[in-house]
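Incident review: delayed structure delivery

Summary: a single-chain prediction request sat in the queue longer than the usual turnaround. Root cause was a stuck worker, restarted by the on-call engineer. No data loss occurred. The affected request and its eventual output are reproduced below so the record is complete for anyone auditing the incident later.

Affected input:
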Amino acid sequence: MRQEDPVATHAAHAPSDPSATAMRRAVELAARGLGSTSPNPVVGCVITDASGTVVGEGWHQRAGGPHAEVHALRAAGAAARGGTAYVTLEPCNHTGRTGPCAQALVEAGIARVLYAVADPNPQARGGGDTLRAAGIPAEAGLLAAEAEEGNADWLTSVRLGRPRVTWKYAATLDGRTAAADGTSRWISSAESRADVHRLRAEADAVLVGAGTLRADDPHLAVRGVDGVTQPLRVVLDTRATIRPSARVLDDAAPTLIAVSEDADTRHLAEAGVDTVRLPYGKEGAGLSVEALLAELHRRGVRSVLLEGGSLLAGAFVAAGAVDRVIGYLAPVLLGAGPAALADAGVTTLTEALRLTITDTARIGTDLRITAVPTLHTPLKEH
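Output delivered after worker restart:
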C-alpha cells in the first residue's frame, strides 16, 4: 500500500535522530484517534521550538473537531513561532467543518514542516504547496511507512474508494473454527477475546453473515473499552431471515441488515430495523461484495472488521476485498469440524492469495498472527 516518495530517504533516520523521534511521537498520538475520527483520517502533530524542544502536541480526536495541527498549535502558543511542525499526514488545504491547517501553520509562524504521508484526497491535498509558496520548507516522507500503517483504514478508503477490510478469525492449530458437533465456545483465550473487542473499537463496522447469526446469535458490540464509539453492526442476510429478537438488534449499537433486492423485509420494517437492498454478485452465489462495500463507504464507513463466517470470508477473499488478516491460533487440535475459510475461488496453488506476516504476538495462551496480501489485488465482482 505504501507509495514511494522522492524524499523517502527520511525514513532511514536512526532512532536517535530528533526528527525521527518527534515524528514517531506524532504517529503514537495519531493512534489515539482510532475509532473516533471516521470518515476523517487519524493524524498526529508534534511542534518543537527553534531549539528543538517539544512545545506542543495534538491529534485529531473526533470528526468535525479541530485537527491535530490546531491542537498542537494551541498547546504551543507563541513558542511555535520559528519552530518545526511534525505531522503524520500532509496538512489539509481546504475549508470544511474546520479551516485549512496549512494556513494555520503559516499564521502561527512555523518555520519548517515535515509530514510523513502526502494527502491523496483531491479535496484536501496541496497543503505542502501552500506552505512552500509562503516560504516555509515542507518535506514529505519522514517515517512514511509507520504513518501509513497507522492510517491504513483511511488511506485505503481514499485510494480504493471502499472501506479497508480486516478479516478476523479464531481457530485451532489445525485450522478448525468449531468441533464436528458445532461447538466453538471457547476456542480462543479470554485475552484473545478481549483483544477482539479492541479491534472492534477501532473499526467503523463489524460484519457477519446469516450463518454466524443463526449459529451464535452474536452481539457484536464493544465491551470493556472505555469511551468507545460503537461500530455499526452489519449482517449480510440475503433472505432477511433474522428475527427481531436477535441480540444484534438491541440498542447497544447501530445495526444494518443487508438483504437481497427481492427479500421480504416486512417484519424488519415493522420493528424499525435499518435495511439495505443489494444486488447479487455476477455469479449469483451471494450478495455483491462490491455493492456492500460501496454502500458502507457511502455511509461514512472507512474500516470493516469481518468476523464471520467461513463462507462470507471466502466471498471476500474471492472478491479481492481482504486487506488484512488477523488470526488467533489456539493450542488446540480437533481433527474435524469447519475450516476457517470456505471456497474462495482458488482451484490451484498458483491462484492462492499469498500473505506477508507483519506481526506476531502471544495473546494469553494463543498466537495472534497479522498478515497482509503480498501483492494487493483490486476489488473485483464475485
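Verification: Residues 18-31 form the longest helix (14 residues).
Action items: add queue-age alerting; document worker restart procedure.
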